[in-house]
What we know:
This protein is mainly β. It is 3% helix and 40% strand. The protein has a single domain, classed as Neuraminidase, CATH 2.120.10. The longest helix is centred in the first third of the chain and has 5 residues, at 30-34. The two termini are 15 Å apart.
Amino acid sequence: MALLQWTKILTIIDGRTKTMKQAQIRLITLCSVLCCGVMSTVVAQQCKGIPQFMIAHGFDPARSAMSSQENRKRGVVLIELSNMANPGSTRNKSYQHPSWLLPGYAGSITTGRNGDIYVLPKANVNMLYNPPENQNTIYRIDSKTGILTSWVKIPMPRIPDEHNASGLLSAFYDCDTDALIVSTVAGSRQKEEIGAIYSVKASTGETKRILDKTDVLGLLTANLNNERRLLYGSARRSEIWSVALDASNHVTGAPRLEILLEGLGPRGDDKARKLRMDTNGMLQVFGVPFYYNLTAPVERQETVYVFEYNPVKKVWTLKSMN
């Protein structure tokens, strides 16, 4: 199971009331700063908040997550796992507010600093619950009330159709700018790449385009060699690129090829569905086949590639895949 959003908490004692309480912490390990003796050149972001409704409903934030892939369920579901190290473990309990069905079948999920949760729709063979005109809509679950509403509609040059039913594909909350970074392929065709990446301010919903004519699956922002960069996986090619961003999410240089996935793994043509940076600066790439259609494979096909950045050679080295 994928698309789980984890939050780390710390139980502390209130010095005034002598009661236990839970507080969000920003975990920075020694190795993430010094890389065990070598100056780290890749810094991951750690700022996601705890949704208040999760605690109000009696869920343990340390073992709970929002899922968009629960069997036979549309929308998103709050689950509490029996084993936090195993996303496929038994669910102690689950909860779904009626409004969480609004996106239909859901895809990418990410959490902001204040605990608000952002949900993207996912194109499905059954379009009854996922109308094409809604494929570029970002939904938000309020941290306090737990109610999901339609939040921001990203522009689409052409409504998704039988040539390409997808719209928004990936979302990442950027701690540095308090903004959601999203990618859309709405309107793209086999020989026409008109996708784009947008930045959406969390506090206002203000939207601006970062890159155009670029079809992207997974993305994230990170500090690489003391430079703020947006890393993104092409939806058309087995490649991961990056571009430098300023403090306002404006592009400040030309795109740069970072990683080639071609020839790797059991399929050899994986695209980067999801990118994740751990606290030690290791880049996890979740590779899948992607062909712009809605044909569901008999079984889930995904390989996780782990890359490490070499600051001397300025290249990424494949460390493992499974």
